[in-house]
C-alpha cells in the first residue's frame, strides 16, 4: 500500500525509545536516488585520510600497483556487508540504533551504538585536525614563525595549530546544524568539484614528473615475506577504513527510495576508492621524482608546491573534502547513538555537538604522528570492535530473524516484546561480542607497547582482526541465539507499515 504525507500510523512506542530522529522514515522522507547514494560515496572517498591511507602504503614499502590492489580488494570485500546492512534500513526505514535493538536488545543496543559513536568521535577529530593543518599552511610565514607556533609539551602541538583546528571544528558544527537535508545537498554540490580538484592535482604531478612512467617508477622495497606480512594488516586497515560507516549505513539507506537505489549507488565504492587510490599513489610516487623524497601527507605536499593561488585552491579543496567526509561518516552515527541513549533529552543537533567536543578530547594530532600509528594501530585496532558488531547484526537479521522484524517491538519496552530478551539485553549478543574481541587484545597490547611480546598466533590474529572477529562473533551469536526459545509473534507484514497497536498499558501511543 502507499502512504500519503497526511496518513498517520499509530505505533505502540515508548517515549524513552522514540523521538522524531528515531522513527521510521516516511515515504516523503525517502528521497535518496542512485545518484544521491553514489555522490555520497564520491564525496566521502575524495578526502585527505583516503589519500593519506593510499600514500601510507607506499611509505611502508609497497609498489603503487600493490597498493591499488590492496585497496580495491578490501573495498570489494567490504561492499558485501555494506549492502547487506543497508537492506533493513531501506526495507523498514530504521536507523542503525533501532536495527541494533533486534540483536542486542532494546537496552543492549546502547553497547554497539556507543562503540560506533566512540570511533566516530575519533575520526571527527582526525578529519578536523587535517583540515586545520591546511588552514595553518595559508597563514603568513611571519605568524607561523612566531612564538605561538612553538609546541607545548603538555598539549602535544602548538597553540597556533590548535587554534586553526578549532576554527575548522566550528565550521563543521555550523554545517551539521542543518541536519540530513543539508548533508545531502552538500554531497551533491561537492562531488563534481572534488573530482575536478583531484584531477588537477594528478595533472600537475604528471607534468612535473615528466609522464606516468616516472610517476609510477617507485618500486616495492619489500621482500616477498615482508610484503605478505604487510599485506594482511593493510587489507584489514583498508576494510576498517569504511567499516564504521558500513556498520551504520542504515542511517542513510533508510532515506533511499528503493533497494536498487541503495545497492547500485553503493556499488561505486570500490571503483571510486580504486580511482582515488591510483591518484593518491601516483602523486605520492611522483614526489620521489619531483622532490627527491616520498611525501605521503598531502598537507606537507601542498607546503612544498607553494604559490598563493595554489594554496587558496588547496585549502578550499581540503576543507570541502573534509566536511563532505567528516559530517556524514563521523557525525551522523554518534549523534544518532546519543539520541538512542536518551531520546527525551538528546536531539540530532545536541548529539552532533557532543560528538564534536569528543573529537577534541581524542587529541588527533597524536594519532597522525606516523603512517605506522595511523594504519597499524588506529585502523587495525578499532576493526576488532567493528567486525564483531557487524557480524552479530548480520547474523541476527539474515539467519535468526530471516529478514522479518517486528517494528512495533523495536520501539517497545514491554517484557512481552520480541526484543526485550533479559531486561532489555540479549546476552547472546553481548557474549558473542566479548568473545569476538578477546583474541585480538594480546596483539593490540603488543602493538601499542603495553606488553613486549606475545605468541606469533596473536600477532596473526591482530593483523586479521576484522575478519576473525566478524566471523567468530557472527557464528557464535547464531549458535547461542538458536538455543534461545523464539517467542510467538507475527513480524511486520508490510516493511513500511507497522502493525496495529495492541491494548497495553505499558505503551504510550505515538503517531508518525
UniProtKB/TrEMBL annotation:
Q: Which GO terms describe its cellular component?
A: plasma membrane
Give this protein's Gene Ontology molecular function annotations: nucleobase transmembrane transporter activity
Segments traversing the membrane: 32-52, 64-84, 117-139, 159-177, 189-207, 227-247, 268-291, 311-339, 351-368, 380-399, 420-441, 461-480
Q: Which UniProt keywords apply?
A: Membrane, Transmembrane, Transmembrane helix
**Location relative to the cell:** Membrane
Respond yes or no to whether keyword Transmembrane helix is given for this record: yes
Which InterPro entries does this chain map to? Answer: Pur-cyt_permease, Uracil/uridine/allantoin_perm
Membrane topology, record value: Multi-pass membrane protein
In terms of Pfam families, this protein maps to:
Transp_cyt_pur (PF02133)
Name the family the entry cites: Belongs to the purine-cytosine permease (2.A.39) family.
> What protein name applies here?
Purine-uracil permease NCS1
From which source organism is this entry? Senna tora
Phylogenetic classification of the source organism: Eukaryota, Viridiplantae, Streptophyta, Embryophyta, Tracheophyta
Amino acid at each position: 500500500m502507499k502512504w500519503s504525507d497526511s496518513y498517520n500510523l499509530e505505533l505502540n512506542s515508548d517515549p524513552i525509545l522514540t523521538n522524531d530522529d528515531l522513527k521510521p522514515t516516511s515515504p516523503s522522507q525517502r528521497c535518496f536516488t542512485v545518484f544521491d547514494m553514489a555522490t555520497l560515496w564520491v564525496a566521502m572517498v575524495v578526502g585527505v585520510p583516503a589519500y593519506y591511507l593510499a600514500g601510507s602504503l607506499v611509505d611502508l614499502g609497497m609498489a603503487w600497483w600493490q597498493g591499488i590492489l590492496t585497496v580495491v580488494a578490501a573495498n570489494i570485500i567490504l561492499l558485501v556487508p555494506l549492502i547487506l546492512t543497508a537492506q533493513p534500513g531501506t526495507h523498514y526505514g530504521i536507523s542503525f540504533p533501532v536495527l541494533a535493538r533486534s540483536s542486542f536488545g532494546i537496552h543492549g543496543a546502547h553497547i554497539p551504538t556507543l562503540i560506533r559513536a566512540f570511533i566516530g568521535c575519533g575520526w571527527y577529530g582526525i578529519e578536523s585536525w587535517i583540515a586545520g593543518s591546511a588552514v595553518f599552511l595559508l597563514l603568513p610565514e611571519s605568524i607561523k614563525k612566531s612564538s605561538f607556533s612553538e609546541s607545548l609539551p603538555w598539549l602535544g602541538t602548538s597553540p597556533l595549530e590548535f587554534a586553526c583546528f578549532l576554527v575548522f571544528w566550528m565550521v563543521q558544527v555550523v554545517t551539521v546544524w542543518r541536519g540530513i537535508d543539508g548533508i545531502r545537498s552538500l554531497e551533491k554540490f561537492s562531488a563534481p568539484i572534488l573530482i575536478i580538484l583531484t584531477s588537477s592535482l594528478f595533472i600537475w604531478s604528471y607534468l612535473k614528473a615528466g609522464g606516468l612512467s616516472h610517476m609510477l617508477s617507485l618500486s616495492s622495497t619489500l621482500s616477498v615475506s615482508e610484503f605478505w606480512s604487510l599485506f594482511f594488516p593493510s587489507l584489514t586497515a583498508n576494510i576498517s577504513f569504511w567499516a564504521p560507516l558500513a556498520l551504520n549505513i542504515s542511517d542513510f539507506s533508510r532515506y533511499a527510495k528503493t533497494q536498487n537505489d541503495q545497492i547500485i549507488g553503493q556499488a561505486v565504492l570500490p571503483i571510486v576508492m580504486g580511482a582515488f587510490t591510483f591518484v593518491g599513489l601516483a602523486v605520492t610516487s611522483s614526489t620521489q621524482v619531483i622532490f627527491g623524497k616520498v611525501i605521503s601527507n598531502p598537507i606537507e605536499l601542498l607546503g612544498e608546491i607553494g604559490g598563493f593561488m595554489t594554496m587558496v585552491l588547496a585549502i578550499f579543496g581540503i576543507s570541502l573534502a573534509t566536511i563532505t567526509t567528516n559530517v556524514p561518516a563521523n557525525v551522523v552515527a554518534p549523534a544518532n547513538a546519543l539520541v538512542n541513549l536518551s531520546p527525551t533529552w538528546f536531539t540530532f543537533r545536541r548529539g552532533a555537538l557532543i560528538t564534536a567536543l569528543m573529537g577534541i578530547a581524542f587529541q588527533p594530532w597524536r594519532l597522525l604522528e606516523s603512517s605506522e600509528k595511523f594504519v597499524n594501530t588506529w585502523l587495525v585496532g578499532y576493526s576488532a570492535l567493528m567486525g564483531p558488531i557487524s557480524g552479530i547484526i548480520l547474523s541476527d537479521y539474515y539467519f535468526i530473524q530471516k529478514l522479518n522484524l517486528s517494528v512495533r517491538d523495536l520501539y517497545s519496552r514491554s517484557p512481552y516484546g520480541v526484543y526485550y530478551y533479559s531486561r532489555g539485553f540479549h546476552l547472546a549478543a553481548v557474549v558473542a561480542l566479548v568473545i569476538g574481541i578477546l583474541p585480538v587484545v594480546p596483539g593490540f597490547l603488543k602493538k601499542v607497547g603495553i606488553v613486549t611480546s606475545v605468541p606469533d598466533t596473536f600477532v596473526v590474529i591482530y593483523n586479521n582482526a576484522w575478519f576473525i572477529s566478524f566471523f567468530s562473533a557472527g557464528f557464535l551469536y547464531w549458535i547461542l541465539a538458536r538455543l534461545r526459545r523464539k517467542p510467538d509473534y507475527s513480524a511486520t507484514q508490510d516493511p513500511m507499515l507497522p502493525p496495529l497497536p495492541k491494548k497495553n498499558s505499558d505503551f504510550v501511543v505515538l503517531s508518525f
